Amino acid sequence: MPCQASTRPYTGPMKRLSRLRRALAPRPEGERPAGPPAGGPPAPVTPPPVVPPAPSGVLVDPSVPRGMVIAGAWSWRILVIVAVVAVFVWLVVQLRIIVIPFMVALLVSALLVPFSSWLQRHRWPRWLAVVVTLVGTITIVTGLVYAVVVQVRDGWPDLRDRSIDAYDDLKQVLLDSPLHVTDAQLNGYLGDALQTLQQDSAPLLRGALSVGTTVGHVGAGLVLTLFATIFVLVGGRDIWGWFVRIFPQGARVPVDGAGRAGWTTLTNFVKVQIFVAAVDAIGIGAGAFFLGLPLVVPVTIGVFLGAFVPVVGAVVTGAVAVLIALVYNGWVVAVAMLAVVIIVQQLEGHFLQPFVMGSAVKVHPLAVVFGVAAGALLAGIPGALFAVPVLAVVHEVVDHLAGGRWRTEPGAPATTPAPPLVETAGADTDA
Fold first, then answer.
1. Given pLDDT bands bounded at 50, 70 and 90, which one contains residue 83?
2. Using N-to-C axis directions, what is the helix angle for 296-306 and 312-347, rounded to 10°?
3. Which of 422, 419, 410 is nearest to 249 (CA)?
4. Which has the closest alpha carbon to 370: 310, 413, 325?
């Protein structure tokens, strides 16, 4: 009894001290404080501030807006891509003596591989099909060049004399006109025009001459083109298989599918471009023949070859035909020849290009124009020639990879890594 009486006075203070300690003790995160007594209004709850998470491994200053962080992340990646593309273009320009023959060989092979494959499917030996294809192509090209050389050589003296007479007549008309132009002014205008033409055409001529500034360079380029074409015709499938096997196992099916899609696009481009060039050449050549123009064969072949440079080539070769008509037959026939050129170009621009070329080269016409201009600026005439096929192939490869079409191709596994090179049954689209 005395012991119980001695401890009773300390019970109340000890309980109050325990409650105070529990009230001051830190609560675990997310635990809500004790609510008000039953029946009272609920206590307001303040949600914690929402802080957007920073990218993993990146220290972000809280004072920098998040939009600026995203813009900066995109900016340096774009700069890296542009730098890689610039280095690649620089290497191509530096190695143009090797790159240009190889690209010419690819274009020629894209035209010849279907014919060689057709002969092989009809039980021709491979070596015989390749020999017949190459010899036939060389014979046709040699015949066209010979016809142009003979026609120009026979008609050059007359063309020179008539050009001088036409210039003298035009000069006299300008001197007698109400414009009161003097002989010195005409000579000055002519000199300025020639100087401007030389300056504007310098990039094109530089690109053309840089391919072969000497006979040795031209010969080396022809030999490289011939050898590359032969090897693509003979063992293109094996070469492509070796290239695909360089990549990791899981990337072989996408790379193989993208390469085949690009090759199909290149083959279609060459076929359709030859058809379009033939239509232009036949239309303008027939107009020149019925109007009685000389040098019909060189004009027709020039239009055919010029049509391989989209937009620019057809305009230049058509202007040459009009100029020949003006020199030989006067301004009336020149106007008629200009009408023929315009009609043929309108037929190409509104029918052949959208319906025929559009199915083979899925590139917007605006991209074609700027691509040709950029190619001419970077590499002259070869750049203008290869701009459209390069754009078409790159577009098809990127579309094939980004669209994931390789996942549904025959031979592509559904859940396992890609096997080695996938063989296709058709031979028309194989290099």
1. very high
2. 100
3. 419
4. 310
Phi and psi at 417, nearest 5°, equal -60, 160
What dihedral do alpha carbons 144, 148, 154, 158 form, nearest 10°?
150
Torsion region of 36: left, alpha or beta (phi above 0 gives left; psi -120 to 50 gives alpha): beta
The predicted model scores a pTM of 0.65
Q: How many angstroms separate the CA atoms of 293 and 296, rounded?
A: 6
Structure tokens at 173: 């008309």
Sign of CA dihedral 210, 216, 219, 223: negative
Give the DSSP per-residue string, 283-348: HHHHHHHHTT-S-HHHHHHHHHHHTTSTTHHHHHHHHHHHHHHHHHHHHHHHHHHHHHHHHHHHHI
Q: Which long-range contacts (CB under 8 A, 24 or more apart) does 363-367 make?
A: 363/388, 363/391, 363/392, 363/395, 367/391
pLDDT tens for each residue of 31-58: 555 555 555 455 555 555 555 555 554 5
Tokens representing 330?
A: 């006067």
Find, among 131, 129, 106, the residue nearest to 116 by Cα: 129
Residue 78 banded pLDDT, cuts 50, 70, 90: very high
Q: Is-contact 258 274, C-beta < 8 A?
A: no
Mean pLDDT of the 175-199 span: 71
Distance CA 420, CA 184 (A): 74
CA torsion sign, 414 to 415 to 418 to 419?
negative
Let me know if 210 is exposed, middle or buried by CB neighbors in 10 A (0-12, 13-18, 19+): middle
DSSP state of 177: S
